[in-house]
Amino acid sequence: MNVTPTDATLGAVVTEVNLANLTDDLWESIHANFLEYGVLIFPGQHLSEQAQGQFALRFGNAEKMHPQQPGPSVQLSNQKANGEMVDPEDQGYRLLKGNEGWHTDSTYMPLAAKAGMLAALVVPPENGETEFADMRAAWDELDDDTQKKLEGFSAYHSLYYSQSRDGFNHTTDHSYGLHVKGAPLRPIVKTHPETGRKSIYTGRHAYGIPGMSPQASETLLSDLLDNACQPPRTYKHTWCIGDIAVWDNRCVMHRARPYDTNQPRILRASRISGEPESELAPTFADHRASDFRPSSNNEFSLSS
Question: Could you tell me the pTM of the whole model?
Fold first, then answer.
């Protein structure tokens, strides 16, 4: 197995390995590099859905992102099954467009994701890349006073909020992210449960720092995100069919890049659920959920 780091502070390209036929020793090496680099790119793997699912489950339990999702993976596509392109008014299209903002997966769910994985099935002739940002290096770049200030802050996370900022208003349909479980409250600074490294943990879904005015909170979070996601802390991957990318959702943000939506772009996604000890957060009322029913203590458990 050959591991070549990128020119950024994160990411490595891994070749000379067959992900469909991994030995335990190779898996241990992959996992060690995953923790070190945050993002691993495996060119030309052309994994079947079953093989991708088996590889994803090496990292932990799979999240179920769609009610009809039979296995660990789901397709992210701007094309319908009959070949027609998705209408810009469709909810799925709006969610894909929202993904063009920097984000951390599943922070709007009570249990956030541990890792994400994408496989390129169909790619547009140009653009449509995926970009990754190193939140560990972003934290390291902050001065001591700013670090101490941020250590005391938390922020709520909501998919309703992030989509509305992009001009997309969604009603509650109990699908993934558009639920009535409330908005998780998560610390802005995260300590990685395996490496112990600290990182900035925000993204487009974060809002409403308790103790701050909405305007001051939005300014701080926006400035923090804009300053963090800059070179050399970013890596942009240009997809080729068959590529696999996997990233550590606990310390890496990502975003899709725009492309001509008249061209199909189909990626197969697997999302790995985090361990409750480090990724479960208390949730509180989100007024954007149309049929939200607060409990007596204004919190929701993972099973609600």
Answer: 0.93
